[in-house]
Amino acid sequence: MNVKDVLPPSQTFGVQQPLNKFSDLMRLELAAAGYKECLNFSLCSRDEISTMLNRPMDKNAVHIANPKTQDFQVGRTTLIPGLLKTITSNKSNKVQLQYGSFF
Predict the structure, then answer these.
(1) How far apart (Å, rounded) are the C-alpha atoms in residues 92 and 96?
(2) Pairing label, strands 74-75, 43-44
């Protein structure tokens, strides 16, 4: 089967979305101010948002009907469990501060 090379009828140019551009600029400014970025899962277990935080189960939490693992049962309602898990997993790592590049 022979496929012919054909140019599309119109040309388009990619442009960054304004919200993404703003997010990138904010991320750079916060990093320059010394803050660290932490990317966590949006799903967590029921225990992480209730029992481990000593709180009642949030009524507004989105529950997954058939979760593949017990770690991803509900949509998170707060950032605290993910941040605590990150700190727990990385407490043996040293934080390296690099002041030379900003001052």
Answers:
(1) 13
(2) antiparallel
> Cα dihedral sign for 79, 69, 66, 45?
negative
Residue 95: is its pLDDT beyond 70? no
Highest mean pLDDT among 15-19, 49-53, 65-69: 15-19
Mean pLDDT of 64-76: 88
Instruction: Give yes or no for a contact between 49 and 77, defined as CB atoms under 8 angstroms apart.
Output: yes
Structure-derived torsion over alpha carbons of residues 88, 100, 30, 82, reported in degrees to the nearest 10 = -10
pLDDT attached to residue 101? 47
- Burial string for 72-101 (b: 16+ CB within 10 Å, else e) reads ebbbbbeeebbeebeeeeeeeeeeeeeeee
**Cα three-residue angle 79-85-86, rounded to 5 degrees:** 90
Please tell me the pTM assigned to this model.
Answer: 0.57
Element spanning 18, H or E: helix 18-32
